[in-house]
Amino acid sequence: MKLPIYLDHQATTPMDPRVLEAMLPYFTEVFGNAASRSHAFGWKAEQAVEQARGEVAALIGASDKEIVFTSGSTEAINLAIKGVAEMYASKGKHLVTSLAEHKAVLDTLKHLEKLGYEVTYLKPDRSARISPEQVAAVLRPDTILATFMWANNEVGTLNPIRELGALCKQRGVLFFSDATQAAGKVPVDVEKDGVDLLCLSGHKMYGPKGVGALYVRRKNPRVRLTAQIDGGGHERGMRSGTLNVPGIVGLGKACDLARLELDQESRRLRELCEHMQKRIEKELGYVQLNGHPSERLPGNLNLSFHFVEGESLLMGISDVAVSSGSACTSASLEPSHVLRAMDVGEDLAHSSIRFGIGRFTTRAEVDYAVDSLVKAVKRLREMSPLYELAQEGVDLKTIQWQSGH
Amino acid sequence: MAYSDKVLDHYNHPRNVGALDKSREDVGTGVVGAPECGDVMKLQIQVEGDRIVDAKFKTFGCGSAIASSSLATEWLKGKTLEEAGTIRNTEIVQELSLPPVKIHCSVLAEDAIKAAIADFRKKQEEHRSAATRSA
Fold this sequence. Notes:
The complex is a heterodimer of chains A (405) and B (135). With 405 residues, chain A is α/β, with parallel strands linked by helices. Chain A folds into two domains: 5-9 and 262-392, Alpha-Beta Complex (Aspartate Aminotransferase, domain 1); 17-258, Type I PLP-dependent aspartate aminotransferase-like (Major domain) (Aspartate Aminotransferase, domain 2). Chain A is 40% helix and 13% strand. Chain A contains 13 helices and 13 strands. In chain A, the strands form three sheets. Chain A has a seven-stranded mixed β-sheet with strand order 2-8-7-6-5-3-4, with helices on both faces. Chain A has a four-stranded antiparallel β-sheet with strand order 9-10-13-12. Chain A is globular and about 75 Å long. Chain B has a three-stranded antiparallel β-sheet. Chain B is elongated. The interface between A and B is medium-sized, with 29 and 33 residues.
């Protein structure tokens, strides 16, 4: 087994060698500009781009013309939200979202608020889910867009997308879903699920970094966007800029592989996750699962270890790469906004670890990670004053903590 | 984040982890921080005359918080109460090469030292007044 072990697949994934192989010719031999219409170099590049467009569309049940290539999900999110807001401003200036969304969505909406738009931030339930009833209660005649992520990047919870899509359609509100974590991991069908806009990213599904796509519905209804990057009118005017041909080819290949292997791979990941969770819970007490017990992303396991601070735990398992919701691991010194929105409790947010199992993770690696985790948690609990109090039977909630921090 | 060798050393081999009997009159206990903030330090000293003869800690917190409290117990042993009271967080920062975002860990350690000394002095005070009352 090679150390360190990578268990942070919600942050990024290694590229599948089959993807790299598909991309390689497009750096050197087939280097043409896909917008060059006057010679074979351009035609070949264009052909490769169009094939990739078809592969991306096939993964999510869309048609080719509904796919706009971008530099990744963040750009796609900016284009979807700002593009809709600008295009439909005369219809209304109200948007709806959840507090558990990714910062790319939340910060884009914050920007719109400064421009005079109004945003309703719904509080998710304790598993990070948004219910259609909650959304129905806040939709208004001037609501132009509802945006809810397909799968949460921290706790892996899946939103009830199909119900949300049906509700938005019925109320005449456009529905955008950030499917960065979900695409290629769980079945996505923009028709059946009633999604009008959707984004995905290459590097979250064993493709290259720096490339992603936005799905923009063309029928029932036809969604229009105001471009956020102006220039040569590429991507039907929605996203100017010379196409990243090798990246797009890689994204297409990654989507193709994900689609073909989705059923088998998601079953394998679920089993590995279940194995990991069972072993941890058997060997350690005081462990809490964050997120939904069943409606979750295959491969994601987010756990809080009572009485142990997340960053110190990361130090204790230094040959296993995971991430923590602890404030100490973030630049802002704020604990995870997702765990806060879920009311997990600040203390447990500090004690959370996200395990992300991926395509190349083996059972032996999972077992190694569990062994090293169990050892570290036990050691840190032995030096935790909170564990000592709990062992003495003191309820930590009854203590008045002296705190200036 | 990269940790300094000294932080790693204290994290991997913490000095003086444990507990002293907090009901004893010669033991002072300081508990500072809060679980919601991600740091709780418990620091204890055992005093003979005015000299600290033993010190123990338990810490819930990041590696730098564990290292700060471990270092504090190391420094406390053998010092008089007066000397112990002059330990400053800046010395801990310097010794452990803590980055700016971890300075609060050293502040907490200084607070814990002060709280333990104050607890010990309060006990002595109470003991004296109890003795006076019974006399």
